[in-house]
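Structure tokens please, single chain.
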Amino acid sequence: MRLHRLTLTAFGPFGGTQSVDFDDLSTAGLFLLHGPTGAGKTSVLDAVCYALYGSVPGARQGGGQGTALRSDHAAPATRTEVTLDLTVAGRRLEVTRQPPWERPKKRGTGTTLDKAQTWLREYDATAGAWKDLSRSHQEIGEEITQLLGMSREQFCQVVLLPQGDFARFLRADAEARGKLLGRLFDTRRFADVEKSLAERRRATEAQVRDGDAELLADAHRMQQAAGEAMELPELAPGEPGLADAVLSAAAVARSTAREQLTVAAGRLTAAESAQAAAARALDDARELARLQRRFAQARERAARLEQGAEAYREAQALMERARKAEAVAPALELRESSEAEHRRAAAAEARARALLPDTFADAGAVGLAAAARRAAEELGGLDSARRAERRLAELLDERAGLDRQERADADLLQEAEAWLDGWEETRTALQTRVDSAQQAAALAEQLAVRREPAQQRLRAARMRDQHAQDTDRAVDRVRTAQDETLRAKQHWLDLKEQRLNGIAAELAANLTDGEPCTVCGATEHPAPARKVAGHVGREAEEHALTAYQRADEQRAEDERRLGVVREALAAATAEAGDTPTRQLADEVAELEEQYAQARSAAAELHAAQERLRQAGHEHEQRLAARQETAVRAASRVGHRERLDRERAALEEELDRARGSLDSVAARAAQLERRTALLTDAADTARVAEDTAKRLKDADARLSDAAFRAGFETPQAAAAALLDNAAHRELQRRLDAWQHEEAAVRAVLAEADTAAAAREPQADLDAAQQTADEAARRLRDAASAHDAAGRRCTELDRLSARATASVRRLAPLREEYDRVARMAGLAAGTSADNERRMRLESYVLAARLEQVAAAATVRLRRMSSGRYTLVHSDDRTGRGRSGLGLHVVDAWTGRERDTATLSGGETFFASLALALGLADVVTDEAGGVRLDTLFIDEGFGSLDDQTLDEVLDVLDSLRERDRSVGIVSHVADLRRRIHAQLEVVKGRTGSVLRQRGTG
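Here you go.
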């Protein structure tokens, strides 16, 4: 990798645009980057890192989006930008990055946030021009990382050599060295292998423990089922021998349970026989008691029958008189019905005679019938007068119709004359409306062509205004999301730092006596750390990390939406132009109003043409109606004379028929009522005479029937007669007495009942008590037998389940032993791992050995052959081995720790270590050639001779066209190194000056 040119604009302390020509500086091979403190030397290196990776090292990144990289000295309208021209892997590339920029709004007041931009171009030597490759942050980042073969952290350690970090590396313990080397060589896969093995060990161990716990739970269930016949092994889940002990105890419990089942079966058989004998004795006692009660009850019923014999004989006599009275019942019913019929007929006759005149009071049925016939004959003579009356009404209606027709024709003639007088004026007005509507239709077609473009432009203007408002809101959301992301990240980092400060207590919580510590490997834990108040655990840290990631995802989503809204705003602005929306709306409204008026007027065209056609048709109808009216007036004169003559004849006939009444209808109604009253009175008189005769006949028949039945009078026969309810009740009493007498005689005649009565009184209580006791013993024996059977069944089921569990756990136990052995080896806790070295530490130790060998080549030259760096895998105290680093002093022949070096010795040792690390990381990254290196600070601690030797070593790096930049403010280096890049700071920002080149 070789740097050609770096261009900065509004970056860090540089308010304007500054450019660095690395090709010019590299001609000398070794160049100096110097300047006063705070001028911006490190910012030049930050710019190189930002151009390649989109971020700067450490806390200098500021906010997660790089907004802190902008220079405070820059003008508001100047955007921050970094452009780097470099050659890597044989390709000439140019990377340009712009961080997010909060710029003034183009319209209105306030600011808006523009998202970050990135460009990647490649120089085409054949065409002699640059060609664009990508504008995607992700694609460019992946491309640069793939070409360089190293991450940002590796680049900052290999290309931008920070001597302070390597000095600390020399003095650090194994854990700190492991963290740095792990980042550089990316040994996370080996740590993941350790973690995976540990997780598998814990998982399989948990499964084995769960299986043993399930097996032990089954053993407890078997113990509960077996009662006192089973003893459990005193072993915990996971301990050896638990399965065999449980299966052995289960076998003993099953054998004991089967013996108990055999004993319970014998007891159940004996109890069943005793219970059957007691039940038979109880049934015999119950039957004897029943027969004795039956005989006693029969004697009591016989006594009650003897007491009621007199009442039974009286009831028989009453029933006999009722049977005789039943022969007189038809005659009684006939007499009662005839009397009722006669009363109804007499009442009807009285009502009918009350409606007649007094002249008919003494008339009989024959006289009333004759008067009714005379009234009917007179009514029939009025039919001709009725017809004449109806014809007269028709004549009057017809004459009124002629009068109405005459008035209607007069009105019609007057209207037609008036309409025809204004015909010419009406026709001219209608024709004018048709012409106006045709002109409006033509105008509407012209306006319709202009409507759609105007409306489309108005819609685009409204969308432009809406997108402008959406853009402002999106900018506010992006700014809020950025602040929230910064707060969430800072909160996560704070919690992470608090957890790391108290990680010892968290690790100590998992310590077990006799088990090796996962940190130091010791099996004894005399004073484990304790958690203090406010301790931050893994869940709190992960929760904070999740909150930060969600906030960062929301920030990215808000930035994406802001870009979408801005693109929509640009498209709407291009279509609508700069004309205000209100002005466009007014123009469209005016155009719409004109178009609506024209369409409204054009819509009247068809109606106007139709009205003109209808008016012509009506003109013809008016002329025809005037002629028809004259013809009808002439015909009405003769018709009216004929109606008058017929009316006079009808009125003379009706005067004769009405008499003293107002009309023929009134006279007819009078005759109809008289005829109906006389007819009704005659009918009711005949019915009354007939019913009187039938009543007399019924009295004679009743007297004769009572005498033949043996009753002195009809009244006596009626008194002896019973109604249906009384008859049924009396018969029921007689039947009940007879049935009871027969039942009592039958019971007293039973031989077994009489024999039972002669036996002693049955003792049911004693028999019941004996039967209950036998039933209780049977239930106890059955319960014991069922319990023994269930115990055997449950023990067989649980034993089979335990046996299946043991077989199922056998492969899992083997897997657990194998995984636990591998996890112990990888974690350095196994006895087979003599140096107690973790897998990741083992890999890093190999890398550190390579780094020490590469660093020794340059360290021997810097120290005039005195010092040599060697890797040590010895253990330090109670810790683990693998990452030790010692220095061998050739003057004394002794090997000592690098922490014992002096300040100057530490500097050139760390420089040699940094250069060696750069070589190893470069080889690890695929052999990418690093033609440009930067070394930061530390030269002030060297004497003149050592400084010369160090510079000679650095000067040797120029071999094969490599250039080295030294970042320092040591004054002596300005005399020794001619090619210089000076950073000059001022009140308006820093500037860059190149000297001693070209």
